[in-house]
Amino acid sequence: MIKEIEYFLSGKINEECGVFGVFNVEDAAQLTYYGLHSLQHRGQEGAGIASSDGESIIREKGEGLVTEVFNTERIAKLPGNMSIGHVRYSTTGGGGIENVQPILVRSHTGDFVIAHNGNIVNAKELKMQLEAMGSIFHTTSDSEIIGHLIQREVGDFHEKILKALPKLEGAFSFLIMNNENLFVIRDKNGFRPLSMGKLEDGYVFSSESSAFEIVGADYIRGLKPGEVLKVSKDEIESFQYTDCTQDKMCSMEYIYFSRPDSSINGLNVHTSRRNCGAILAKESPVEADIVIGVPDSSLSSAMGYSDFSGIPYEMGLVKNRYVGRTFIKPNQHQRERGVKMKLSAMEAVVKDKRVVLVDDSIVRGTTSKHIIKLLKDAGAKEVHMRIASSPIISPCFYGVDTSTYNELISTRLSPKELGEYIGADSLAFLSNDGMIEGLGKNICLACFTGKYPTSMFSLLENLKK
Ligand SMILES: O=P(O)(O)OC[C@H]1O[C@H](OP(=O)(O)OP(=O)(O)O)[C@H](O)[C@@H]1O
Ligand SMILES: NC(=O)CC[C@H](N)C(=O)O
Ligand code: SF4
Ligand SMILES: [Mg+2]
């Protein structure tokens, strides 16, 4: 029980990284700091910024949140009008300062820095090959591999990048910067988002378009799968590192990760969640008095459920916004109380009501179980749980930590059994077709279907562990 509560307090579907880049704008590092701040929800383990004044690259990084790593003095050490930054949630290689990005590659042909969102699925194989050929790795993260691959190629820097990229399999949105250019890269499956915006005489690039608003930039477009942009003083050139592409945007970006004010592939995240909520209401109706969402990520889908069903949307749960990843764990005696510190049920709203409770996903079932208890303790007559995505039955290898196979409760329990386990009066999930209807057909659904859009290399060995 204690473990379960700690898990509930800490957040479970662990976010992935965020990248932000600036080209040809004064005080680029300062802007990158603001950009990273708005991408903080994507990774809280470490943050870093590298900048260039055209002569040399300076990098500053540290463990923790953006505001913990950077202050005015530290940003002042980063001169120039080109910059890239990164917020990290580790997927390969574990934590620690050495793996905090951007990764700096020193070379007699010119230094460069790398910021990566995603996960390379053939990292183990590539690392073995590269080490056998003499490469010495400075980090344990998969992101460093692209640096070694680039170094082994011949030609101009951009030719080297184009030759190295086809060797990587898996998910990557990269920003790579040397003293002249910024390279903006999206993998051939388009797993992770990456957008371009215009600011003054320059450009900004971000994992999420919502960051543009914060720095005052205008959204131009998202990168295409397999696209490489070479950003120079005079022009932006677009290349494809391969023509073998498919559009497999991570559906979890819409369902859970991205901010509601971001747009991905032309679809606003809040709107996509609202669509899914409405389709869920169409697929799994129930008689009830109010619809409530779990703050914050499922509020939009709860609105959608209410739109379609006509059942009034209410605020039945309140979140303490200061409890989360930085929460100091209470001592043993206080842990039970801790649950209530993250979310409180509004007795005045839910008492004697039949409640439809909408959440975005179920991973281990801990959240739903606790929230249903909170609502029933506050006097709710019935709680009907509706989930705006399908049961998660397979782990992700593309940059999201959705737990291991054994921890995923839907691998063991049917929706009916799971409903009983979490104490709901009924439980229903959005169907796979419903997700496609709400989010479009160009999405990855591997964690819901077990059908991975790429070869999994040695990672498959661990799939059922
Ligand atoms: O079934 P579980 O294992 O409990 O996981 C599912 C829950 O995890 C996520 O919320 P989380 O509490 O991580 O963060 P949030 O407050 O940002 O929604 C998600 O939104 C679900 O509510
Ligand atoms: N979550 C991510 O996108 C992580 C990027 C990279 N795989 C790392 O572990 O640092
Ligand atoms: S497996 Fe799931 S979390 Fe991973 S990229 Fe695909 S949809 Fe996203
Ligand atoms: Mg949640």
TrEMBL record:
<dbReference type="Pfam" id="PF13537">
    <property type="entry name" value="GATase_7"/>
</dbReference>
<keyword id="KW-0479">Metal-binding</keyword>
<dbReference type="InterPro" id="IPR005854">
    <property type="entry name" value="PurF"/>
</dbReference>
<dbReference type="InterPro" id="IPR029057">
    <property type="entry name" value="PRTase-like"/>
</dbReference>
<dbReference type="Pfam" id="PF00156">
    <property type="entry name" value="Pribosyltran"/>
</dbReference>
<comment type="function">
    <text>Catalyzes the formation of phosphoribosylamine from phosphoribosylpyrophosphate (PRPP) and glutamine.</text>
</comment>
<keyword id="KW-0658">Purine biosynthesis</keyword>
<feature type="binding site">
    <location>
        <position position="396"/>
    </location>
    <ligand>
        <name>[4Fe-4S] cluster</name>
    </ligand>
</feature>
<protein>
    <recommendedName>
        <fullName>Amidophosphoribosyltransferase</fullName>
        <ecNumber>2.4.2.14</ecNumber>
    </recommendedName>
</protein>
<keyword id="KW-0004">4Fe-4S</keyword>
<feature type="binding site">
    <location>
        <position position="359"/>
    </location>
    <ligand>
        <name>Mg(2+)</name>
    </ligand>
</feature>
<comment type="similarity">
    <text>In the C-terminal section; belongs to the purine/pyrimidine phosphoribosyltransferase family.</text>
</comment>
<keyword id="KW-0411">Iron-sulfur</keyword>
<dbReference type="GO" id="GO:0004044">
    <property type="term" value="F:amidophosphoribosyltransferase activity"/>
</dbReference>
<feature type="binding site">
    <location>
        <position position="297"/>
    </location>
    <ligand>
        <name>Mg(2+)</name>
    </ligand>
</feature>
<keyword id="KW-0328">Glycosyltransferase</keyword>
<feature type="binding site">
    <location>
        <position position="250"/>
    </location>
    <ligand>
        <name>[4Fe-4S] cluster</name>
    </ligand>
</feature>
<dbReference type="InterPro" id="IPR000836">
    <property type="entry name" value="PRTase_dom"/>
</dbReference>
<keyword id="KW-0460">Magnesium</keyword>
<dbReference type="InterPro" id="IPR017932">
    <property type="entry name" value="GATase_2_dom"/>
</dbReference>
<keyword id="KW-0808">Transferase</keyword>
<dbReference type="GO" id="GO:0009113">
    <property type="term" value="P:purine nucleobase biosynthetic process"/>
</dbReference>
<keyword id="KW-0315">Glutamine amidotransferase</keyword>
<dbReference type="GO" id="GO:0000287">
    <property type="term" value="F:magnesium ion binding"/>
</dbReference>
<feature type="active site" description="Nucleophile">
    <location>
        <position position="17"/>
    </location>
</feature>
<dbReference type="InterPro" id="IPR035584">
    <property type="entry name" value="PurF_N"/>
</dbReference>
<dbReference type="InterPro" id="IPR029055">
    <property type="entry name" value="Ntn_hydrolases_N"/>
</dbReference>
<dbReference type="GO" id="GO:0006189">
    <property type="term" value="P:'de novo' IMP biosynthetic process"/>
</dbReference>
<feature type="binding site">
    <location>
        <position position="447"/>
    </location>
    <ligand>
        <name>[4Fe-4S] cluster</name>
    </ligand>
</feature>
<feature type="domain" description="Glutamine amidotransferase type-2">
    <location>
        <begin position="17"/>
        <end position="234"/>
    </location>
</feature>
<feature type="binding site">
    <location>
        <position position="444"/>
    </location>
    <ligand>
        <name>[4Fe-4S] cluster</name>
    </ligand>
</feature>
<feature type="binding site">
    <location>
        <position position="360"/>
    </location>
    <ligand>
        <name>Mg(2+)</name>
    </ligand>
</feature>
<comment type="pathway">
    <text>Purine metabolism; IMP biosynthesis via de novo pathway; N(1)-(5-phospho-D-ribosyl)glycinamide from 5-phospho-alpha-D-ribose 1-diphosphate: step 1/2.</text>
</comment>
<keyword id="KW-0408">Iron</keyword>
<dbReference type="GO" id="GO:0051539">
    <property type="term" value="F:4 iron, 4 sulfur cluster binding"/>
</dbReference>
